[in-house]
Amino acid sequence: MEKEKENAKVESVRQKIATLRSNKGYTFENMAHELNITPSAYSKIETGKTKLSMSRLFDIAEIFKEPVSNFLGTEGNVFNQTNTENASGSSQVQYQQKIENFYQENKEVYEKLIASKDEQIEFLKGLLGKK
């Protein structure tokens, strides 16, 4: 169940990237050129055949001139957090619970992205060691 939830979140990020790329009129080739990778490698990122690293997500956000939070879906939750000051009673408790849930979910996603980055570094170190 937890893995399905994680996969859905990652898929949501990929969908946002693909939608924004399409809306801005960028092709796989445009994105690949900006990221210094092949169009095939970029395609694999959007289709989920390659893991999306945090650094790659930051690079993509920079290309689109968008904050990373747009891809992670944090805008609404940040808004709720600022409104908790005006909330009272059970509403405030509900907002606080949403904030805590949001924080925990994002923390898990970040930890997995960091683990993925660490795996990539170890893989590259292994390649360098073979030469």
Order of helices and strands: HHHHHHH
Q: Could you name the CATH class?
A: Mainly Alpha
- Taking the alpha carbons of the first and last residues, their distance comes to 42 Å
Instruction: Count structural domains.
Output: 1
For the largest beta-sheet, the strand count, sense and barrel status come to: none
- The helix count comes to 7
Extended strand count: 0
CATH superfamily: lambda repressor-like DNA-binding domains
Radius of gyration from the alpha-carbon trace, in angstroms: 18 Å
In CATH, the topology is named 434 Repressor (Amino-terminal Domain)
- The dominant shape is globular
Helical fraction: over 70%
Judged by helices, strands and strand pairing, the structural class is mainly alpha
Strand content is under 5%
Unreliably modeled segments: 75-88
CATH architecture: Orthogonal Bundle
Mean pLDDT: 78
